[in-house]
Amino acid sequence: MDSTTVSGTGDAFKGQAVLVPDLLQPLELLLAELTAAEREQAPAASRQGRPTERRCRQFVLGRCAAHAAVRRALAGQAQPSCIEVLTGQEGQPVVWVDGVAGAACVSITHSGRLALACAWTGTPEGRRAGVDLERLRPVDVAQSRYAFSRRERALLARAPEGPRLAGLAAWTAKEAAWKALWPAQGADPAEVEVWALNLAGGQAVVRAPRGGSRLGVRVGMTAGPEGEYVFSVAR
Amino acid sequence: MTREEIFAVIQANIREIIAGTKDKEILESHSMRDLGADSLEIVEVVSRSMKQLRIKVPRTELFEVRDLKGLLDVFEKAAAKGQ
Q1: What pLDDT, in 10s, does the model give residues A189-217?
Q2: How far is B26 from chain A (nearest CA, A)?
Q3: Which numeric CATH code is attached to A2-127?
Q4: Is B38 in contact with A134 (Cβ distance < 8 A)?
Q5: Is B59 on the interface with A (CB under 8 A)?
Q6: In the predicted model, is pLDDT for residue B53 greater than 60?
Q7: Hey, are the CB atoms on B44 and A112 less than 8 Å from each other?
Q8: Interval A48-100: pLDDT, tens
């Protein structure tokens, strides 16, 4: 298991990030890492080679990353066997420690064969955090009208790193901010707009919906089983 | 353009973009998440399909789509408007 640490913004808002690659071990071994309640929530993967198996593997890897991130965030204050990360009513991951929810918050993402989770304690009331990860691949998302507003497309067209990398990075920034704003992010993800992107400096700024506040997003690169990945952490 | 023709375009793009779906049955009842897609792969399938079908759909309508049947409904409506 590979791991990295993410620092917060200087206040008590510290996060722990953990990356878990898919080493193609048998699915049963991965599932054994989860609690019974977590296994019940895993997407069914009854037949080898079905598309659902990929989804199930990603889910399990994400939960494994979340467990490790929560353990680090709690700094030994909880026995690993007492930690559960269950899916909440709105689809959000909820951390349970000894049967009590809310000791930490966690955000989970995966792309290809890599999962990333970040866990935080001491998050101010009503404030969350979000992460997103994408494998670097030749996609032309930067000019997609579905993914980005006109203003964002203009910003990405000018990015010194080129529209491909900038497009992927901006997408992760947007997704991470979307998760961080939950449950007040509004109905339309298009309203979460990337306002500035500085890949060299590892930063992006995302504007919340309806002229709301601006979120700082950390943008970085990491290596994984299928090459390089770009990730964002919004807080 | 018939619903079957629109679905054929979507299916072809899913098979090309979402790993592990090349030889799989893709039904209207599936969602792209069920098929193992991440958020960006969904964007790629939708964007490429709209381009090939020469249709434009407001983003707000697309974000309400939950499965391939919903996507087909939206695309079919947009294609009918363009005729």
Answers
A1: 667 899 999 999 999 999 987 667 888 99
A2: 10
A3: 3.90.470.20
A4: yes
A5: yes
A6: yes
A7: no
A8: 445 578 888 999 999 999 999 999 999 888 888 899 999 998 888 999 999 99
CA-nearest residue of chain B to A58? B36
Which pLDDT value is given to residue A184? 67
pLDDT mean over A35-51: 74
Residue A153 is predicted with a pLDDT of 94
Name every residue in A having a CB less than 8 A away from some CB of B: 43, 49-55, 58, 110-112, 132, 134, 139, 141, 144-147, 168, 171, 175, 187-190
Percent of chain A with pLDDT over 90: 59
The two three-digit tokens of residue A131, written as one number: 């992460």
Nearest-10 Cα torsion for A158, A161, A165, A171 = -50
Number of H helices, E strands in chain B: 4, 0
By C-alpha distance, the chain B residue nearest A189 is: B63
Q: How far apart are CA A133 and CA A47, in angstroms?
A: 27
What are the tens digits of pLDDT across the range A95-120? 999 999 988 999 999 998 999 999 99
Cα–Cα distance measured from residue A226 to residue A25, given in angstroms and rounded to the nearest whole number: 16
Average pLDDT of chain A is 86
Considering only alpha carbons, which residue of chain A is nearest residue B62?
A: A146
The CATH architecture one would assign to domain A132-234 is Alpha-Beta Complex (3.90)
| A/B interface, count of CB pairs below 8 Å | 62
User: What is the separation of C-alpha A88 from the centre of its chain, rounded to a whole number of angstroms?
Assistant: 16
Tell me the fold of B3-82: 1.10.1200
B56 part of contact set with chain A, CB < 8 Å: yes
Which SS3 state, helix, strand or coil, does residue A227 take?
A: strand
CA dihedral B57, B62, B65, B70 (to 10 degrees): 10
Nearest residue in chain B measured CA to CA from A53: B36
Q: State the complex-level ipTM.
A: 0.79
Could you tell me where in chain A the CATH 3.90.470.20 domains are found?
2-127
Per-domain residue ranges for chain B? 3-82
Half-sphere exposure of A58 (CA within 13 A, CB side): 21
